Amino acid sequence: MPAAPTASAPDRFVFCRLVSPRPTFAMDMTADERAAMQLHVSYWTALLERGTAIVFGPVADPAGPWGLGVLRLRGDESARDIVDADPAIQAAIGLRYETLPMLTAAAKAGI
Fold first, then answer.
1. How far apart, in whole angstroms, are the C-alpha atoms of residue 85 and residue 52?
2. Which range marks the domain in which residue 30 is found?
3. Based on the structure, what is the number of domains in the chain?
4. Is residue 106 part of a domain?
5. Is position 40 within any domain?
6. pTM of this prediction?
7. Closest Cα partner for 102 from 61, 67, 70?
8. Beta-carbon neighbour count of residue 53 at 10 Å?
9. How far is the C-alpha of 18 from the C-alpha of 68, rounded, in Å?
């Protein structure tokens, strides 16, 4: 008798906050920091195109801009692996991520 099909695990959503090394980072990046951030945008754009990121971009916080990303994780995908592979983190320019799993999320199908 064939095995019964197993239900796939539901998608998980994770809020990612990219914290800069200083409040003025977005306004006074060095050339090396700017290069790392350009690679960061390319990286997150690729995540968006494959459906792993559902939104990302800078947030205009009066205390200093910071980056927001929301990940849709499927199967065994790991938020930690994704953010650790970000070129801006790999560049070791003082950025760090705070990641928080969402308890529940409503998301448009197919995104």
1. 14
2. 12-101
3. 1
4. no
5. yes
6. 0.87
7. 70
8. 20
9. 6
Are the beta carbons of 72 and 54 closer than 8 angstroms?
A: yes
Residue 70 region by backbone torsions, left for phi larger than 0, else alpha for psi between -120 and 50, else beta? beta
SS3 annotation, 49-86 = HCCCEEEEEEECCCCCCEEEEEEEECCCCCHHHHHHCC
Average pLDDT, the chain: 91
Q: How far is CA 97 from the centre of its chain?
A: 8
Q: How far is Cα 13 from Cα 70, in angstroms, rounded to an integer?
A: 7
State pLDDT tens for residues 86-111. Answer: 999 999 999 999 999 999 888 877 66
Q: Identify whether 108 is part of a domain.
A: no
- Categorize the per-residue pLDDT at 10 as very low, low, confident or very high, splitting at 50, 70 and 90: confident
Q: Position 81: which residue type?
A: D
**CATH code of residue 56:** 3.30.70.1060
